[in-house]
Amino acid sequence: MTPVLEIRGYTLDYALPKGAFRALDDVSLAIARGEVLGLVGESGSGKTSLAWAVMRHLPMNAREAGGAIRLAGDDLRGRSEAEMESIRGRRVGMVFQDPSTSLNPTLTLGEQLAEVLVRHRGLTRRQAWEEGTSMLGHVGLKLPAEMMRRYPHEASGGEKQRVVIATAFACQPELILFDEPTTALDVITARQILDLFARLQQETAVASLYISHDLAVVGGVACRVAVIHRGRIVEEGEVRRVFAAPRDDYTRRLIAAVPRPDRRLASPAPADEAAPPVVEAQAITVEYGRPSLLADLLGRRRRFVAARDLDLAVRPGEILGVVGESGSGKSTLAKALTGLNRFAGEIRFAGRRLTGARDMDRLYRRDVQIVFQHPDSSLNPRQRVAEILSRPLKLYGAAAAREIPGRVAELLEQVRLPADFARRYPHQLSGGEKQRVAIARAFASHPKLVICDEVTSSLDVSVQAAVIELLLDLQRRYGTAYLFITHDLNLIRQIAHRIAVMHRGELVELSTVDEIAHGPKHAYTRALIDAVPAPVG
Amino acid sequence: MSLTFLLRRGGLMVYTLAVVSLVVFGITQVLPADAAVMMLGENATPEALAAVRERLGLDQPVIVQYGRWLAGVLRGDFGFSLRTGQKVAPVMLEALGRSLLLAALSIGLMLLIAVPLGIVAAVRRGRLADLVVSLMSYVGVSLPEFVTATLAVLLLADWLQLLPATGYVPPTEDPVRGLKHLVLPVLTVSVILVAHVSRMVRSELVDVLHADYIRAARLKGLDARTVLFKHALRNALLPAITIVALDVGYLLGGIIVVEEIFALPGVGRQLIVAIQNRDLPAIQAGALIMAATYSAVNFLADIAYAALDKRIQYE
Predict the structure, then answer these.
(1) How far is A117 from chain B (nearest CA, A)?
(2) CB under 8 Å to A338, separation ≥6 — which residues?
(3) Are A151 and B231 a contacting pair at CB < 8 A?
């Protein structure tokens, strides 16, 4: 039987000022009807370029250097743009990464679904609207008729992704490309979308190409998996086989880098539980939104409570994980602890009570440092690394002026960067290297507590593994405590001693890792753990 | 859009105008002009001057004068012109009508030209059409209106003799002649606006065409035309509303010049005549009316934006 999608020896270059860049190199793969092929790779590996190539929607500077892309036998490379317009959406559907940017903000959800039915199935607008409504019901949206009339900003991320999926399935295509469809979603929402995908896949027997950087997700949805690295498919095979016994070296490293809760990385918790905490938060509450004069006059006060009555003590040398979905208040807590947010309640530190940013003096700042999620925005692009690292040294008087160059070199060595990086600007570094500089900056003052706010979320899995290893090494060396904020439950179960679970601004559970593993107390924690895709193999 | 938003936005406008009224009144106070001398001439007796000052209330404290003036303004009474002795308000409002006609026609013409130009430049980005539009825009932006006006008069009125160079005939009296008199002023005002707005439409549209949802629309199989007009244009034109409203500020300034060049008796020309004659009530009225127009247009633009873009929720 002819496969639905067959790619043979496909090679793609991008013409760049520096010369040609090979994005895809002799790629071959095939997907049969009813089959899900997972395509796994890190950023820049070429996985998305492959999707554009299949869709015949390549950037202007793309140069195809050979190969064939066949949809049910006919080569798409020979098709004209007009022919492709009638193939896209009808015979090949696509689901995108972020539903909040892939939907037009000024058109209703219904309009964006119905227009595909009008375009490809020749329905009238009224018929398309009716059909669309029933489709939204089919993808599990309650009140589909109302959802049709809503604008994207009036729906949640999960609801929007369901609309995008309904649109992709609308014309019963032979092939659907999924480009990281759950990456932008919260854990529990992502789980529901994956369940929906599995159901629709079963019902329609569509051929699916499922692109993702997340091996655990791919392991859960795909039958076969292809691993792509620098434009080449380095390994392909049945999911269980590839994950259990990878043949390629890169695949092995990739799989080894995936966080697995059963493989502990951190050393045991510090024995002394009675030691006074480094920092203790007491009844911290943060509200957003400034009260407006008019709202006051009209007697309507709407303030959003981002964190409510948080009690939390970080012990010396421990790694305290904070997990929760986006908007649960994790980062709000970090901002309160560093004085970036106004808060009610108090922070206890070294026998003192701090009630706001004004109380946080140099002593507190020296001992409590923070590393942010995006090194791009937390490192000043106009300063060289040497300058970035010497500022905390001067500020906290950690080194005399003439010792500073030497200390900068030491700091770089600590985070395993070459000493000559001191002369570089942040834009000359990779994402992982930038985050190492941010970590070095935090450690410059020998802090007792470092707050890590999603420090690995924007990094590829292999880079993440290296950064985590570095953080654990520093923790062992200096006995620094971490408040480690993340949405990645598998990762935090690997490294934390205790885990705080946040939900809608409240701390719903604070337990040791063992307690979480052997039966979480709170129902929400249980839901969260159940929703996380388990690593395969 | 909530009632609160309307109230807040309206309140802001009232506040702005209150401040403007203070400034306008303050400026006319420090101008070296004595209303009584203006009325009676240099040779008037001190007694006569004192009598006039008392009649006009000029001997009262400034704050009382401001209060009286403001009370009048709120009733639509800007006092009497020192130059003609007539009531200021009707004259100014009539002039405002002519200026608004000029402004409305200019904006209309500008939109007719600028939006298609911007679209062409964005869609054919980096090609010849884009280059031509960009060049024209730069030329248009860099030429001051008195140069554009002079060129237009030379070409269309002097050499080709197609249109009258100056003057004004109310279109209500004689539509053909009235419109002929408006063509040159409207052209002059539009040129700079076209240049500005077409560049803006181009850059907004270029941004939007790179958005994920545009790619998503293409990959749903929609043709380029539908994607452009249904998905992209609306999002690209929304910011244009705000820019056009801000351009009204320029328009009011530019109109003063253009009205003077073409001897079109609009509010700008009235203001110039008032300033030349130190006709304080007329200056106050002209300045305040211009400020009110500007505020009102921006108020309407904000409301239009909020109504068109459902995401905007000004509290």
Answers:
(1) 10
(2) A360, A368, A370, A451
(3) no
What angle do the packed helices B145-152 and B175-209 form, to 10 degrees? 130
Q: With contacts defined as CB-CB under 8 Å, which chain A residues touch B312?
A: none
> Phi/psi zone of residue A279: left (φ > 0), alpha (ψ -120 to 50 degrees), beta?
beta
Out of 1.10.510.10, 3.20.20.120, 1.10.1530.10, 1.10.3720.10, select the CATH number for domain B89-280: 1.10.3720.10
**In whole angstroms, what is the distance from residue B262 CA to residue B165 CA?**
7
pLDDT(B313) > 60: no
Query: What distance in Å separates the CA atoms of residue A113 and residue A504, rounded to the nearest whole number?
Result: 32
Burial of residue A515 (CB within 10 Å: 0-12, 13-18, 19+) is middle
Q: Give A106's contacts in chain B (Cβ within 8 Å).
A: 234-235, 238, 308-310
Give the end-to-end CA distance of chain A in Å, rounded to a whole number: 31
How far apart, in whole angstroms, are the C-alpha atoms of residue B111 and residue A4? 49
Q: Alpha carbon of B246 to those of A336, A460, B24, B216: distances in Å?
A: 40, 45, 21, 33
The vertex-B47 CA angle with B43 and B53, nearest 5°, equals 90
**A305-364 pLDDT, tens per residue?**
888 889 999 999 999 999 998 888 898 999 999 999 889 999 999 888 998 888 888 899
What is this model's ipTM? 0.83
> Please, what are the domains in chain A?
5-257 (3.40.50.300), 316-340+361-531 (3.40.50.300)
Q: Specify whether the CB–CB gap between A160 and A150 falls below 8 A.
A: no
Q: How far apart are CA A213 and CA A183, in angstroms?
A: 9
Residue A483: phi and psi, rounded to 5, are -105, 105
Whether residue B134 is predicted with pLDDT greater than 90 in this model: the reply is no
A107 token code pair: 């058109």
Q: Which two tokens stand for residue B274?
A: 């008032």
Alpha helices in A16-108 (DSSP H): 47-55, 81-87, 99-102
Above 60 in pLDDT, residue B169?
Answer: yes
The residue-averaged pLDDT of B151-179 equals 82
